[in-house]
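Note to self: keep these together.
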Amino acid sequence: QVQLVESGGGLVQTGGSLRLSCVASLISFRYNTVGWYRRTPGQSREWVAYITAGRVTNYRDSVKGRFTISRDDAKSAVYLQMDNLRPEDTATYHCSVPWGSDLGQGTQVTVSS
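Structure:
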């Protein structure tokens, strides 16, 4: 089972920024698509962004232009830079390595209005 360590969440005001990090214990990390989901209480998870092994990225429409996903294969890490945060971005963010697999425990992001 892949071990995931997520960090970087916190409380910010509307318009603020956070950078999430996720380090995975997956030897084949560099060959996999990886990414982020988020979940709010009482709702199912929704995908946020993913990045392929070839560095192709994709974002859900509501975060395009505000979030940037990146990866460091040498560190088996995936990052999510979140700028211009909005209250509706409030959620627990989970990385998914490989993409679509079981999620880590997540890191809480709270955006106050």
